[in-house]
Amino acid sequence: MNPCRTGIGATAWVIADGYIPPHSSGPEPDMTSHDSICVLNAGDTEARVEVYVYFTDREPAGPFVLPIAPRRAFHQRINDLSRPERIPVGTDYCLLVTSDIPIVVQHTRLDSRQEANALMSTIAFPA
Q1: In three state form, how does the secondary structure of 23-60 look?
Q2: Could you tell me if 19 and 94 are in contact, meaning their C-beta atoms sit under 8 angstroms apart?
Q3: Residues 2, 42: Cα–Cα separation, whole Å
Q4: Within a 10 A sphere around the Cβ of 96, how many other Cβ atoms?
Q5: 96: helix, strand or coil
Q6: H/E element, 64
Q7: DSSP assignment letter at 76
Q8: What is the pLDDT of residues 24-76, one digit of tens each?
Q9: SS3 state at 101
Q10: pLDDT tier at 123 (50, 70, 90 boundaries)?
Q11: Is 4 helix (H, G, I), strand (E, B) or coil?
């Protein structure tokens, strides 16, 4: 079985725990506190991925459009999203990640506010 042709993943993913820590203690840019999504496109065609950011006190931001090449992994720091707007640090949010073909999404947070850094990673919820 060729895994690139099996439709691995889902077309909608949810990350319910978003938070970009507002401070960092390590050298930039490697140790800058951040959230990121890690995306796998195991398919044979480019994926058109859209990211929507939901907040507790305002309307959602997005879509942030990310083309993901076929048979590739892609990492996107949420801190680096800028169009249509930047995501504020120190603010709770949730993500809805959609794609026109099945993908796999994982969420990672690096919290380097203290010298003892914390790294968290979890698979997103396939909706």
Answers
A1: CCCCCCCCCCCEEEEEEEECCCCCEEEEEEEEECCCCC
A2: no
A3: 10
A4: 19
A5: strand
A6: strand 61-68
A7: E
A8: 666 566 555 668 899 999 999 999 999 999 999 999 999 999 999 999 999 99
A9: strand
A10: confident
A11: helix
What φ, ψ does residue 97 adopt, rounded to 5°? Answer: -115, 120
CA distances from 21 to 31, 50, 92 (A): 12, 23, 10
Instruction: Give the C-alpha separation, 103 to 11, whole Å.
Output: 6
CB 8 within 8 A of CB 102: yes
Residues forming a β-bridge with 65:
50
What pLDDT shows up at residue 106? 93
121 CB burial (10 A radius; 0-12, 13-18, 19+): exposed
Q: What is the mean pLDDT of residues 12-32?
A: 73
Strand partners, 103: 10
Three-state secondary-structure class, residue 81: coil
